[in-house]
Amino acid sequence: MTVTEDESGREGADDADNVDEADGEDGRSGGAKGAPDDGYVPSQRRLERERYRRTRARRATAIAALSTLVTGAVLYLVVVGAPGWPRARETFFDGQYAREAFPKVLEGLWLNVRLLLVCGAAVLVLGMLIAVARTLRGPVFFPLRALAAAYTDFFRGLPLIINLMIVVLGVPALRLQGVTVDPVLLGGTALTLTYSAYVAEVFRAGIESVHPSQRAAARSLGLNNRQALRHVVLPQAVRRQVPPLLNDLVSLQKDTGLVSIGGAIDAVRAADIIVGRSLNYTPYIVAGLVFVALTIPMTRFTDWVTARMDRQRAQGGTT
What we know:
Blueprint: H1 2-34, H2 44-80, H3 85-92, H4 95-134, H5 142-157, H6 160-174, H7 183-209, H8 212-220, H9 225-240, H10 242-255, H11 267-278, H12 282-314
Helix pairs in contact: 4-5, 4-7, 4-11, 4-12, 5-7, 6-7, 7-9, 7-10, 8-9, 10-12, 11-12
């Protein structure tokens, strides 16, 4: 009887242990399965820190808004309170002339946009060729390097307005057979010549920023100099120089308005025609605001690309 009770007691204990183990396994599996359903509960200190950060952010936003309003109000009072403000408002901010100039300025802006697209592509191609010529190695390529260096030095030093006058006004004066005298084409050529010099230096800086070991590794894999430049060096160089290239594109977009000195009817010239007839400068303000409206999205896109590349660089990503 005693043995039977002991055996039954041991069996009961074993059954209890098995039940406890099964319950533990079920609890662990249930906890693992239910983990996604159980939200993370932050500590009280963490909640206080987050609350403090939100309070500081709201306070900073309120201070920034208040300071902006105060600054704007002060500037407004200074301008409006100036003795010559009534005359300036009539000359530069006349609503009647603004309504008259706006559709004509928009019509002329289409020429500026086309110049931006065509000249931008030409500048990238010519600038890349000049940059590659300046980075060629070996004494046999010295004439190309010297010519490319002279090109960049000359057109970076020559003011754009003088370059436009030489090309737009000087080339037709030569009366060369087969050479166009279209002010749009000549103005676009002058823009391309000047900006390709700047873009060439941007590309050259990108090429020289690639470590020489990249080129050496490409050569060790059996690539020749041309293949290493095309497949290894240039992709890295261009990717690193995207922000400065976009900045040059924004600057080119503004300078397309200078082709009006040759008589091309762009946004600036359309405003100039109305100004010459009315002696009121409001159309210039309209043209300027149109250019600003066109430039702001490009500028913000440039800032976004720059910030994105900085984050990738900080995280150890490729640039």
